[in-house]
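ok here's Erythritol transport system permease protein:
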Amino acid sequence: MNLSIKKSSKKDNHSLTMTLLKGRTFIVLILLMVFFSFASSNFLSTNTMLLLAKHVALYGILAIGMTYVIITGGIDLSVGAIVGLCGMVAGGMIQKGLTLTFFGVTLYFSVPLIILFTLLIGAIIGLLNGIIITRFNVAPFIATLGIMYVARGFAMLHSNGATYSNIIGNTALGNTGFSFFDSRLLGIPVGVLILIIIAVIAGVLLKRTTFGWHIFAIGGNERAAKLSGVKVNKVKILVYIFSGVCAAIVGIITASQLQAAHPASGEGWEMNAIAAAVLGGTSMMGGIGTIGGTVVGAFVIGVISDGMVMCGVSEFWQMIIKGVVIILAVIVDQFQRRMEAKIALQARNEAKND
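and the structure:
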């Protein structure tokens, strides 16, 4: 009788611990909201919340692409540089157009065409990442680190390090309307609506399609996935293309919100994307992750960043705190995996005894 009670008590404790661990990101988000609402009287104001939502949208879109990559067991350090390069491409095409030196003419394109071309740039960079990793067997960390420098260098070369300012277009040239991404629909920032759309599509693809199952299979056991007939290289390339497109979207939104394009835009944002994904439960070992968790993780990063700014915390301390957050997130993730393995082992042992 006592043994039965002890077993039941242990199961209840394990169940409670696992529930808290799985919901840790949401719990942390609530605690942060409460803390900063007391630390800064303006934190919960409408203007602050709208600004926070804009920042979260940028981190969230980047983090969704990063989640796909990390689930396969990879990493993408180039996304921040892609943000800067794509912003410069879009800003340059609006302000300077495309000069065809051989013909001696300059072409100006409509905003939809500029957006399509910019997204294509992001996709091509993602494709390069995927090819280098799969065809040449270069470690994702090294491959994307190299591409990060290449993309950032091209962003600088695009304008010799200068900023494209006041990129609102010219009615006579038919390239106005870029400011749409800084507007609101039904009172909601367009960037947030784009985040919602991407999150829904990415979530459905990840959980409800064969492509999503293949992503999880590769991260869980790449060799087994390959033996099962999964086209590992193809899936990886597509994942990095998706990450590149997500970064390009963020580059477009950022340039629109600032009405300017600077080659250093997005610098360090790859760390925010990784942190959001890991905080949301994506395992750095691969094979585990959810889009919903990543979006909540993006909110946590956004609240930490904006909250510390409003409280006057030094930028240097902000970097330290974000680093500690990433480390703690990985430690907690590892603890959760060990707990799950322990519970599974106990369940098997009890089944044998019964």
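+1. The first helix runs from residue 2 to 22.
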